[in-house]
Design goal:
heterodimer, A: 10 helices, 0% strand, elongated, B: mainly alpha, 79% helix
Protein backbone atom coordinates (compact mmCIF):
# COMPACT_ATOMS: atom_id res chain seq x y z
CA UNK A 1 0.00 0.00 0.00
CA UNK A 2 1.41 3.42 -0.97
CA UNK A 3 2.06 5.91 1.82
CA UNK A 4 -0.33 8.42 0.25
CA UNK A 5 -3.16 5.86 0.14
CA UNK A 6 -2.40 4.82 3.68
CA UNK A 7 -2.51 8.44 4.87
CA UNK A 8 -5.91 8.89 3.21
CA UNK A 9 -7.26 5.76 4.87
CA UNK A 10 -5.93 6.77 8.27
CA UNK A 11 -7.39 10.27 7.86
CA UNK A 12 -10.76 8.71 7.06
CA UNK A 13 -10.59 6.51 10.16
CA UNK A 14 -9.53 9.41 12.37
CA UNK A 15 -12.41 11.53 11.15
CA UNK A 16 -14.84 8.87 12.36
CA UNK A 17 -15.20 6.48 9.43
CA UNK A 18 -14.56 3.26 11.36
CA UNK A 19 -15.50 1.16 8.32
CA UNK A 20 -12.28 2.32 6.59
CA UNK A 21 -10.43 0.39 9.27
CA UNK A 22 -11.46 -2.76 7.40
CA UNK A 23 -8.62 -2.09 4.95
CA UNK A 24 -6.10 -2.01 7.80
CA UNK A 25 -7.52 -5.23 9.26
CA UNK A 26 -7.35 -6.97 5.89
CA UNK A 27 -3.77 -5.84 5.25
CA UNK A 28 -2.45 -6.90 8.66
CA UNK A 29 -4.66 -9.82 9.70
CA UNK A 30 -2.06 -12.33 8.51
CA UNK A 31 0.78 -10.73 10.47
CA UNK A 32 -1.29 -10.49 13.66
CA UNK A 33 -2.46 -14.08 13.25
CA UNK A 34 1.11 -15.30 12.87
CA UNK A 35 2.40 -13.48 15.95
CA UNK A 36 -0.52 -14.57 18.11
CA UNK A 37 -0.37 -18.18 16.97
CA UNK A 38 3.35 -18.45 17.57
CA UNK A 39 3.35 -16.86 21.04
CA UNK A 40 0.00 -17.93 22.52
CA UNK A 41 -0.52 -21.65 22.95
CA UNK A 42 -4.05 -21.50 24.33
CA UNK A 43 -6.30 -21.80 21.30
CA UNK A 44 -9.33 -20.35 23.05
CA UNK A 45 -7.56 -17.05 23.68
CA UNK A 46 -6.08 -16.48 20.25
CA UNK A 47 -9.07 -14.92 18.52
CA UNK A 48 -9.77 -12.59 21.45
CA UNK A 49 -6.15 -11.50 21.44
CA UNK A 50 -6.31 -10.75 17.71
CA UNK A 51 -9.36 -8.61 18.39
CA UNK A 52 -7.64 -6.81 21.29
CA UNK A 53 -4.65 -6.07 19.08
CA UNK A 54 -6.76 -4.50 16.34
CA UNK A 55 -8.74 -2.48 18.88
CA UNK A 56 -5.43 -1.13 20.24
CA UNK A 57 -4.30 -0.32 16.71
CA UNK A 58 -7.60 1.53 16.09
CA UNK A 59 -7.45 3.51 19.32
CA UNK A 60 -3.80 4.49 18.88
CA UNK A 61 -3.86 5.17 15.15
CA UNK A 62 -3.55 8.93 15.75
CA UNK A 63 -0.15 8.25 17.35
CA UNK A 64 1.23 6.57 14.23
CA UNK A 65 3.72 9.07 12.80
CA UNK A 66 4.78 7.23 9.60
CA UNK A 67 8.29 6.86 11.01
CA UNK A 68 8.17 3.16 10.18
CA UNK A 69 6.01 0.89 8.05
CA UNK A 70 2.49 0.48 9.44
CA UNK A 71 3.11 -3.29 9.48
CA UNK A 72 6.09 -2.79 11.81
CA UNK A 73 3.97 -0.62 14.12
CA UNK A 74 1.09 -3.14 14.09
CA UNK A 75 3.57 -5.97 14.65
CA UNK A 76 4.98 -4.19 17.67
CA UNK A 77 1.51 -3.77 19.17
CA UNK A 78 0.78 -7.44 18.47
CA UNK A 79 4.05 -8.61 20.02
CA UNK A 80 3.68 -6.43 23.13
CA UNK A 81 0.06 -7.48 23.61
CA UNK A 82 1.04 -11.15 23.45
CA UNK A 83 3.99 -10.66 25.82
CA UNK A 84 1.70 -8.89 28.31
CA UNK A 85 -0.74 -11.79 27.99
CA UNK A 86 2.05 -14.26 28.82
CA UNK A 87 3.14 -12.15 31.78
CA UNK A 88 -0.43 -12.11 33.09
CA UNK A 89 -0.56 -15.88 32.71
CA UNK A 90 2.88 -16.09 34.36
CA UNK A 91 4.37 -17.97 31.42
CA UNK A 92 8.16 -17.95 31.31
CA UNK A 93 9.49 -15.86 28.45
CA UNK A 94 13.00 -17.33 28.49
CA UNK A 95 14.36 -13.80 28.56
CA UNK A 96 17.85 -15.17 28.60
CA UNK A 97 17.73 -17.27 25.47
CA UNK A 98 21.31 -18.50 25.96
CA UNK A 99 20.15 -20.63 28.90
CA UNK A 100 17.89 -22.51 26.54
CA UNK A 101 20.74 -23.90 24.47
CA UNK A 102 20.89 -27.30 26.11
CA UNK A 103 22.99 -30.10 24.59
CA UNK A 104 21.20 -32.42 22.22
CA UNK A 105 22.29 -35.45 24.29
CA UNK A 106 20.34 -34.22 27.30
CA UNK A 107 17.44 -33.35 25.09
CA UNK A 108 17.28 -36.80 23.52
CA UNK A 109 16.76 -38.40 26.91
CA UNK A 110 13.32 -36.72 27.01
CA UNK A 111 12.21 -38.12 23.69
CA UNK A 112 9.24 -40.38 23.08
CA UNK A 113 9.66 -44.10 22.46
CA UNK A 114 10.24 -45.32 18.89
CA UNK A 115 6.67 -46.63 18.82
CA UNK A 116 5.34 -43.18 19.56
CA UNK A 117 7.51 -41.75 16.83
CA UNK A 118 6.11 -44.23 14.39
CA UNK A 119 2.65 -42.85 15.07
CA UNK A 120 3.80 -39.33 14.33
CA UNK A 121 3.67 -39.34 10.59
CA UNK A 122 3.16 -35.68 9.89
CA UNK A 123 6.59 -34.09 9.68
CA UNK A 124 5.16 -30.62 9.54
CA UNK A 125 3.44 -31.25 12.86
CA UNK A 126 6.76 -32.45 14.25
CA UNK A 127 8.39 -29.20 13.21
CA UNK A 128 5.55 -27.25 14.84
CA UNK A 129 6.10 -29.24 18.03
CA UNK A 130 9.77 -28.41 18.02
CA UNK A 131 9.09 -24.74 17.37
CA UNK A 132 6.64 -24.72 20.30
CA UNK A 133 9.48 -25.71 22.59
CA UNK A 134 11.66 -22.77 21.60
CA UNK A 135 11.81 -19.56 23.64
CA UNK A 136 9.23 -16.92 22.71
CA UNK A 137 11.83 -14.63 21.14
CA UNK A 138 13.14 -17.40 18.86
CA UNK A 139 9.65 -18.42 17.79
CA UNK A 140 8.62 -14.86 17.01
CA UNK A 141 11.75 -14.12 15.01
CA UNK A 142 11.37 -17.33 12.99
CA UNK A 143 7.80 -16.41 12.15
CA UNK A 144 8.39 -12.78 11.28
CA UNK A 145 11.43 -13.65 9.15
CA UNK A 146 10.18 -16.68 7.25
CA UNK A 147 6.41 -16.19 7.13
CA UNK A 148 6.13 -12.41 7.03
CA UNK A 149 9.41 -11.90 5.19
CA UNK A 150 10.50 -9.05 7.42
CA UNK A 151 14.06 -7.73 7.55
CA UNK A 152 16.27 -7.87 10.64
CA UNK A 153 15.72 -4.12 11.11
CA UNK A 154 11.92 -4.45 11.05
CA UNK A 155 11.97 -7.39 13.45
CA UNK A 156 14.36 -5.47 15.70
CA UNK A 157 11.88 -2.57 15.86
CA UNK A 158 8.97 -4.87 16.62
CA UNK A 159 10.80 -6.74 19.38
CA UNK A 160 12.82 -3.79 20.66
CA UNK A 161 16.21 -5.43 20.38
CA UNK A 162 19.37 -4.77 18.34
CA UNK A 163 19.56 -6.04 14.73
CA UNK A 164 22.54 -8.20 15.68
CA UNK A 165 20.55 -9.96 18.40
CA UNK A 166 17.77 -10.70 15.91
CA UNK A 167 20.24 -12.30 13.53
CA UNK A 168 21.94 -14.25 16.29
CA UNK A 169 18.62 -15.58 17.68
CA UNK A 170 17.41 -16.48 14.18
CA UNK A 171 20.53 -18.46 13.37
CA UNK A 172 20.53 -20.21 16.75
CA UNK A 173 16.84 -21.09 16.47
CA UNK A 174 17.27 -22.62 13.02
CA UNK A 175 20.38 -24.51 14.06
CA UNK A 176 18.59 -25.96 17.09
CA UNK A 177 15.58 -26.95 15.01
CA UNK A 178 17.74 -28.63 12.41
CA UNK A 179 19.77 -30.51 15.03
CA UNK A 180 16.69 -31.66 16.91
CA UNK A 181 14.88 -32.84 13.84
CA UNK A 182 17.90 -34.63 12.40
CA UNK A 183 18.66 -36.18 15.79
CA UNK A 184 15.14 -37.58 15.93
CA UNK A 185 14.54 -38.53 12.33
CA UNK A 186 16.47 -39.77 9.35
CA UNK A 187 17.43 -37.04 6.93
CA UNK A 188 15.37 -38.54 4.10
CA UNK A 189 12.33 -38.36 6.37
CA UNK A 190 12.69 -34.61 6.49
CA UNK A 191 10.89 -33.90 3.27
CA UNK A 192 8.15 -31.47 4.21
CA UNK B 1 37.83 -22.40 -1.99
CA UNK B 2 37.50 -23.42 1.68
CA UNK B 3 39.59 -26.35 2.88
CA UNK B 4 37.27 -26.85 5.84
CA UNK B 5 33.55 -27.61 6.18
CA UNK B 6 31.21 -24.66 6.15
CA UNK B 7 29.83 -23.42 9.46
CA UNK B 8 26.11 -23.41 10.16
CA UNK B 9 26.12 -19.63 9.93
CA UNK B 10 27.75 -19.68 6.51
CA UNK B 11 25.21 -22.18 5.21
CA UNK B 12 22.31 -20.18 6.64
CA UNK B 13 23.68 -16.94 5.21
CA UNK B 14 24.04 -18.68 1.84
CA UNK B 15 20.40 -19.81 1.91
CA UNK B 16 19.21 -16.38 3.04
CA UNK B 17 20.88 -14.96 -0.03
CA UNK B 18 23.23 -12.86 2.09
CA UNK B 19 26.46 -13.46 0.31
CA UNK B 20 29.57 -12.32 2.05
CA UNK B 21 32.78 -11.61 0.19
CA UNK B 22 33.36 -15.38 0.39
CA UNK B 23 30.09 -16.09 -1.39
CA UNK B 24 31.77 -17.56 -4.45
CA UNK B 25 34.00 -19.77 -2.27
CA UNK B 26 30.94 -21.00 -0.37
CA UNK B 27 29.19 -22.01 -3.62
CA UNK B 28 32.33 -23.72 -4.91
CA UNK B 29 32.82 -25.59 -1.67
CA UNK B 30 29.23 -26.82 -1.59
CA UNK B 31 29.60 -28.20 -5.10
CA UNK B 32 32.64 -30.22 -4.15
CA UNK B 33 31.85 -31.25 -0.53
CA UNK B 34 29.29 -33.98 0.06
CA UNK B 35 29.04 -33.30 3.81
CA UNK B 36 28.26 -29.62 3.35
CA UNK B 37 25.78 -30.42 0.57
CA UNK B 38 23.95 -32.68 3.01
CA UNK B 39 23.94 -29.91 5.63
CA UNK B 40 22.64 -27.49 3.04
CA UNK B 41 19.88 -29.91 2.04
CA UNK B 42 18.76 -30.24 5.66
CA UNK B 43 18.61 -26.48 6.03
CA UNK B 44 16.77 -26.14 2.72
CA UNK B 45 14.16 -28.58 3.95
CA UNK B 46 13.84 -26.70 7.22
CA UNK B 47 13.55 -23.31 5.51
CA UNK B 48 10.83 -24.68 3.25
CA UNK B 49 8.88 -25.96 6.23
CA UNK B 50 9.25 -22.66 8.09
CA UNK B 51 7.63 -20.86 5.15
CA UNK B 52 4.51 -23.02 5.35
CA UNK B 53 1.39 -21.22 6.50
CA UNK B 54 0.32 -21.80 10.10
CA UNK B 55 -2.83 -23.78 10.95
CA UNK B 56 -4.70 -20.89 12.57
CA UNK B 57 -7.45 -18.99 10.78
CA UNK B 58 -9.76 -16.28 11.98
CA UNK B 59 -13.48 -16.68 11.25
CA UNK B 60 -14.76 -14.99 8.09
CA UNK B 61 -16.92 -12.72 10.26
CA UNK B 62 -13.92 -11.47 12.28
CA UNK B 63 -13.46 -8.22 10.39
CA UNK B 64 -17.19 -7.37 10.28
CA UNK B 65 -17.69 -8.15 13.97
CA UNK B 66 -14.73 -6.02 14.91
CA UNK B 67 -15.87 -3.12 12.74
CA UNK B 68 -19.35 -3.31 14.26
CA UNK B 69 -17.78 -3.13 17.70
CA UNK B 70 -15.62 -0.16 16.73
CA UNK B 71 -18.56 1.66 15.15
CA UNK B 72 -20.46 1.35 18.42
CA UNK B 73 -17.50 2.72 20.36
CA UNK B 74 -18.24 6.48 19.92
CA UNK B 75 -21.78 5.92 21.25
CA UNK B 76 -20.36 4.15 24.27
CA UNK B 77 -17.85 6.94 24.88
CA UNK B 78 -20.66 9.54 24.60
CA UNK B 79 -22.69 7.63 27.17
CA UNK B 80 -19.56 7.42 29.30
CA UNK B 81 -19.12 11.22 29.11
CA UNK B 82 -22.75 11.76 30.17
CA UNK B 83 -22.34 9.45 33.14
CA UNK B 84 -19.06 11.13 34.08
CA UNK B 85 -20.67 14.59 33.93
CA UNK B 86 -23.59 13.39 36.05
CA UNK B 87 -21.32 11.86 38.66
CA UNK B 88 -19.16 14.98 38.64
CA UNK B 89 -22.16 17.22 39.23
CA UNK B 90 -23.54 14.99 41.99
CA UNK B 91 -20.19 14.86 43.77
CA UNK B 92 -19.94 18.65 43.53
CA UNK B 93 -23.38 19.15 45.10
CA UNK B 94 -22.69 16.51 47.73
CA UNK B 95 -19.27 17.90 48.58
CA UNK B 96 -20.64 21.42 48.91
CA UNK B 97 -23.58 20.24 51.03
CA UNK B 98 -21.37 18.31 53.41
CA UNK B 99 -18.97 21.23 53.74
CA UNK B 100 -21.80 23.66 54.47
CA UNK B 101 -23.37 21.24 56.92
CA UNK B 102 -20.24 21.02 59.02
CA UNK B 103 -18.89 24.57 58.75
CA UNK B 104 -22.01 26.74 58.44
CA UNK B 105 -22.09 29.89 56.34
CA UNK B 106 -20.15 32.27 58.60
CA UNK B 107 -16.71 31.35 57.23
CA UNK B 108 -18.14 31.96 53.77
CA UNK B 109 -19.11 35.51 54.71
CA UNK B 110 -15.66 36.18 56.10
CA UNK B 111 -13.98 34.73 53.03
CA UNK B 112 -16.13 36.69 50.63
CA UNK B 113 -15.39 39.90 52.54
CA UNK B 114 -11.73 39.14 52.11
CA UNK B 115 -12.19 38.65 48.37
CA UNK B 116 -14.10 41.93 48.22
CA UNK B 117 -11.33 43.77 50.04
CA UNK B 118 -8.73 42.30 47.66
CA UNK B 119 -10.92 43.22 44.69
CA UNK B 120 -11.34 46.78 45.95
CA UNK B 121 -7.60 47.05 46.52
CA UNK B 122 -6.86 46.12 42.91
CA UNK B 123 -9.93 47.99 41.67
CA UNK B 124 -11.82 45.16 39.99
CA UNK B 125 -15.03 46.98 39.14
CA UNK B 126 -16.39 44.05 37.20
CA UNK B 127 -16.87 42.15 40.48
CA UNK B 128 -19.46 44.70 41.65
CA UNK B 129 -22.47 43.18 39.81
CA UNK B 130 -21.52 39.73 41.00
CA UNK B 131 -21.18 41.09 44.52
CA UNK B 132 -24.61 42.68 44.29
CA UNK B 133 -26.10 39.49 42.94
CA UNK B 134 -24.56 37.39 45.69
CA UNK B 135 -25.60 39.89 48.32
CA UNK B 136 -29.15 39.55 46.99
CA UNK B 137 -28.93 35.80 47.37
CA UNK B 138 -27.79 36.23 50.92
CA UNK B 139 -25.27 33.41 50.42
CA UNK B 140 -21.66 33.12 51.22
CA UNK B 141 -19.94 31.60 48.26
CA UNK B 142 -16.44 31.43 49.68
CA UNK B 143 -17.21 28.11 51.20
CA UNK B 144 -18.80 27.02 47.99
CA UNK B 145 -15.61 28.07 46.25
CA UNK B 146 -13.57 26.11 48.77
CA UNK B 147 -15.75 23.07 48.23
CA UNK B 148 -15.39 23.35 44.46
CA UNK B 149 -11.66 23.68 44.88
CA UNK B 150 -11.49 20.60 47.11
CA UNK B 151 -13.62 18.53 44.74
CA UNK B 152 -11.61 19.69 41.73
CA UNK B 153 -8.37 18.89 43.51
CA UNK B 154 -9.59 15.42 44.42
CA UNK B 155 -10.69 14.88 40.81
CA UNK B 156 -7.32 15.93 39.45
CA UNK B 157 -5.45 13.67 41.88
CA UNK B 158 -7.84 10.85 41.08
CA UNK B 159 -7.39 11.33 37.33
CA UNK B 160 -3.63 11.63 37.41
CA UNK B 161 -2.68 9.10 40.02
CA UNK B 162 -5.35 6.73 41.14
CA UNK B 163 -7.61 5.92 38.26
CA UNK B 164 -6.30 3.81 35.40
CA UNK B 165 -8.40 5.00 32.50
CA UNK B 166 -9.24 1.61 31.10
CA UNK B 167 -10.54 0.40 34.45
CA UNK B 168 -12.95 3.27 34.90
CA UNK B 169 -14.07 2.84 31.30
CA UNK B 170 -14.73 -0.84 31.92
CA UNK B 171 -16.63 0.03 35.06
CA UNK B 172 -18.88 2.50 33.25
CA UNK B 173 -19.35 0.13 30.32
CA UNK B 174 -20.36 -2.56 32.74
CA UNK B 175 -22.91 -0.19 34.28
CA UNK B 176 -24.26 0.77 30.87
CA UNK B 177 -24.61 -2.84 29.78
Amino acid sequence: MRTQDLKQIIDKILTGDASAFGVIIKAHERLVRHVVFRIVNREADREDLCQDIFIKVYRNLSKFQFESKLSTWVGRIAYNTCINYLKKKKVSLYDDCTTFDQPIDNYLSDLHTPEQFAVETDLYSRLQEEIEKLPVQYKTILTLYHLDEMSYAEIAKIMDMPDGTVKSYLFRARKQLKERLTAKYELEELCF
Amino acid sequence: MFLRHLTDNEIQDHLDGRFSQNGRHVSDHIESCEYCRAQLAQYQTLFGALRKEIPFRLPASFSNNLLAKLTDEPKASYRLAVWAALFGFLSLVLGTGITLFFTGVKPLVASWSLIQRVANAINLDWLAPIDAFLAGLNLNLSLLGSAIFVVALISVIDYLLLRPRHKIASFFKMMIV
